[in-house]
């Protein structure tokens, strides 16, 4: 039985090539490829090139979304990959982020979203007063 509604992976990439981070077309192409190769199904995307630099974008996938915000002047990119399918291969996605953005350092945090309570566990932590309200 599935215990969460989704997984939210927060990826911070440091010391990336600034030329990649400021190129909207390269970033979008990378994100569409990452979605496809990690078994997500893209249904739309929007990417914006800021002036003088930086890119923000999102790929909407059937399983949720991937988004990015870049700071080329700092070699930094903030990425969210939120998905709600057991078929998404996050390990492949992380390898592809490394391939496309070549970070010197990458931080990855995985958060379970929509954690479903198990009845027995829920009852165990409830006070007697709360139990009466259920």
Major sheet: arrangement of strands: 2-3-4-5-1-6
What value does the average pLDDT take? 89
Count the domains: 1
Fraction in helix: 25-40%
Strand content: 35-45%
The gross shape turns out to be: globular
How far apart lie the N and C ends? 23 Å
What's the CATH H-level homologous superfamily?
S-adenosylmethionine decarboxylase
Query: pLDDT below 50 for ≥5 consecutive residues: which ranges?
Result: 119-134
Structural class: alpha+beta
Task: Supply the CATH class.
Answer: Alpha Beta
Tell me the CATH topology. Answer: S-adenosylmethionine decarboxylase
The total of beta strands comes to 6
Rg to the nearest angstrom?
Answer: 18 Å
How would you sum up the major sheet? 6 strands, antiparallel
Could you describe the 3D structure shown?
By secondary structure, the chain is α+β, with helices and mostly antiparallel strands. The chain has a single domain (4-133), classed as 4-Layer Sandwich (S-adenosylmethionine decarboxylase), CATH 3.60.90.10. Helix content is 32%, strand content 40%. It is built from 5 helices and 6 strands; from the N terminus they run E-H-H-E-E-E-E-H-E-H-H. The protein has helices spanning 18-21, 24-37, 90-101, 119-125, 128-133, and strands at 4-14, 42-49, 55-61, 64-71, 76-83, 105-115. It has a 6-stranded antiparallel beta sheet, with helices on one face. The longest helix has 14 residues, at 24-37. Mean pLDDT is 89; it is low at 119-134.
